[in-house]
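for the writeup, i need someone to sanity check this before i put it in the appendix. the sequnce is what the collaborator sent (i think, or maybe the updated version? ugh). structure was predicted straight from it, no edits. if anything looks off just tell me and ill rerun, i have time this weekend
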Amino acid sequence: MRLLFIGDVVGKPGLRILSKFVPDYKKENKYDFICVNGENAAGGFGLTRKSASKLKKYGCDVITTGNHIFDRKEELEELFKLEYVIRPLNYEKSFPGKGFTVIEIEDKKVAIVNVQGQTFMPKEPKTSSPFKLVQECVENLLPITSIIIVDIHAETTAEKIAMRYFLDGQISALIGTHTHVQTADEIVTSSGTAYITDVGMTGAFDSIIGMQAKPIIKKFMGDKNQSFKLAKNDVRMNAVEIEINEANGKAKSIRRIEIGENS
């Protein structure tokens, strides 16, 4: 089984490059399944039902999210009526949506789980520790499928690496999201779990993680009145390609991908 996991989509530039590449790229590379983190797809902040529908139309099978969905509170109820959109499992129980989904690909089932880290993350939405909850979720999923993909949406490398050790051998892949900078530490462990600390970003790279540089620099210098503005230039897609043994759910390989809009 061949899986493509696409890094955090940031606004219209990210949506645009996916609209150009994903449909043909999926066919050419014979990907069975595409997952994308879409928490910043709507204007760079949050996710709407409309932007989620676009990602689905382009060929993304499941959309994971993270803390920025809270930027569009008014969208949450309608957004999470979409079966292919999930939110972190460790959000408080009253939060709309669900933290995992299982989809069928021909005669195989694939589970996708979304969790959020706690270190240096916003206080809203409220979260509990992801470790115990994700372990319980994986244990419940294993009788259904051995192919389990987890998106850990977190700030620190230490928390993501800790989760790698915690879930090693129990899942097919652990993919880090949130920081928007692709890391060069992809690995398949000896127990058959593919891992990368952060898959990166899909959006404008002439930027500070997708946003125009000048307002952010001014804010760092003490000007609290500055607001973030979406960048537009040097648009790229970051992703990882993972091969998984369908028989036992063990990862065989993981490969980083970066594609420019004008490639």
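The chain is about 25% helix and 25% strand. Residues 51 and 162 are 32 Å apart (CA to CA).
thx in advance!!
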